[in-house]
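My current task is to audit a protein record that another person submitted. I have pasted the whole thing underneath without changing anything:
***
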Amino acid sequence: MKVYFYHTQDLNMIHKKWKEGRFPGHFLYGATHLPEEGIEVVLHKYKSIPSRCRLMWYVAWSILTCREHFDAIYATHWDGLELIIFLRALHLYRRPIIIWHHQPIMEADSKMREMTARLFYKGIDHMFFFSERLIQESLKSPKANPDRMQVCPWGADLVSYDRLMKEYPVEEHVGFVSTGKEKRDMPTLIRAFSATGQELNIYIAYNACGDNYVEILNDLRPSANVHINFIKGFIPNELAQKVWAAKFVVICCQETNYTVGLTTLVEALAFGLPVISTRNETYPFDIEAEGVGITVPYYDSVAWEKAIRFLVSNPEEAEEMGRKARELAERTFNLENCAHEVAKALKAFDKHIVKEEKKEVAQEPQATPEPQATPTPQTSNLKPQPSPPQEPTIFDQPAEPTSPKIPEFRVSKEIEDFYADIKTSSPLKEEGGNSTNEKATAKVSTTLPVGEGQGGGSASIISINTDALKEKMREAQKQLVSWGENIKEQLPEKEQVVRFGSNLKQWGIKQYGKMKEMVNSKLANRK
């Protein structure tokens, strides 16, 4: 199996540095270890494009024109993949799309955006979430499909961190450290450390996610024990060295509905350092229950002061927290486990593997079968059971092999049958001794609207029951209108459905007129 790997960051640079041992592999979400799981990887060619619209077109063009064959798309985020996902939702792109979903699926503000989002999520075949809480929050939205959602234990590249600890040995770990740039609560953190006097090193971006940390920190006027370091660019390996030199890790974040601070948390686990963190319910594990640190409520500087003093005053307990943190990383939250779970999910979409598994199931020797109420004559052909019926919406597409959820449009088939009957009817036969006027007379058949020639002689006469033909076309026209009305009742947007039904009706009338003209022309030519 081979997958096309899409990343929103500079994928080629990250992969190159990872090979050189200068970049932790977990930022590639298991793609570095997929070859060990039997999955080849095609790397997306990253290009920095600030315009979202241009980015979507570039990503779509790169995927659609990729010369290397691949079986599925594996992406760390859907940002930039929107066009491909919509094509997949409309059954215009055949390869499955598997992504990481960083936030819970939420209801849209407007009805139109919600409809668009429902179509969008139809184009995603599988989603990885960081925690069970994110899935539970997502299931409150009708767009979420639990069969396409999975929790994956995203964790640190332990091999990379072990190498870093050997290359940069630390005689004595000192002070607290705070890293990360997204939704950080600097006022609460600085107030707490200003009150305790403990050494704190903050490594943060100039601005991120709408927060201008330069202005925020200047207004706070931190005390001398708080050291501010602004960073620029994506330098996880350099920041990891600073974290390794510290004794404790702090994660003070604003209240959100997703896993803010998770990168810093899994890094602390890899280093075996105790943690103080705001109580983020979306984390994949309970920090206090696992014994790896202390959690405090949002925006509570007094609780932060107590937690800081507790770790400083209880070094043995702090050391035990660090030991449990490393054990948790080795047991669950590491790159190897993450890559293995990703590989299992990807292989479920490999048509070759699926075919082989079905063959093995079909070729298994059948032991004494259990008695069945209605025995089937053939047991070798295994057919998948149809999925349970779901409420039809505008975005429901006909899924193979189940029947469509809206009435099937067979109008073109009926029209083709009419044309076929006319084209395949036998040539005109003239009844013996008939005059020219008699040849022009259509002999009415009582059985078929368009039937085979009757009578004898050198020529033939086409038998047409015009009343039956008109009646059948009226029924077809009524069926068209009925289908339009049925769809109208199912869809929320009335205006576009009425227009669609009207177009169907006009098309049916037009086809009826064309057929009538054709039949009259056919008769006229035989006169």
